[in-house]
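Give me structure tokens for this 151-residue protein.
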Amino acid sequence: MVSSLLLGRIFLTVANTSSRIPLGPRSQWCDFTTSTARWSDSSPKPDAVVSYEELKNMLSCHNVQLFDVRNPDEFMSGQIPDAINIPLGQLEESLKLSPEHFQQQFSRQAPGKDDDNMVFHCQRGNRSLKALAIASTAGFQQGSTLQGWVH
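Here you go.
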């Protein structure tokens, strides 16, 4: 649930962007659409909101770095396949790891600062918004947050 204070600070302008990305050596293409939200506040806010349908398409194309910022016990009770669990309190430190240390700790390639396929999610969206702000402050300017709730 989004508070009325937050709603009062948000200036939403939704722009739909369609893209095609090549997938694999056979030149298969995956289509995806993102919705971009612009914010009136100068503090780091989400640059994009990814819907559940968009995320499913990104997952099927293997074109997403999905970060679950819930606590480990929440993650263990159920998660989206291929998500990396980095609790919100550890995110800033984890994003500062060298690519080698990130690989060792999470068994995944470290995200790049220019990557546009980073998606943060949690249970209700509050922590993923905070994660997006943390990532933006750390220089990851093109992250997204998953729209809606994850049960």
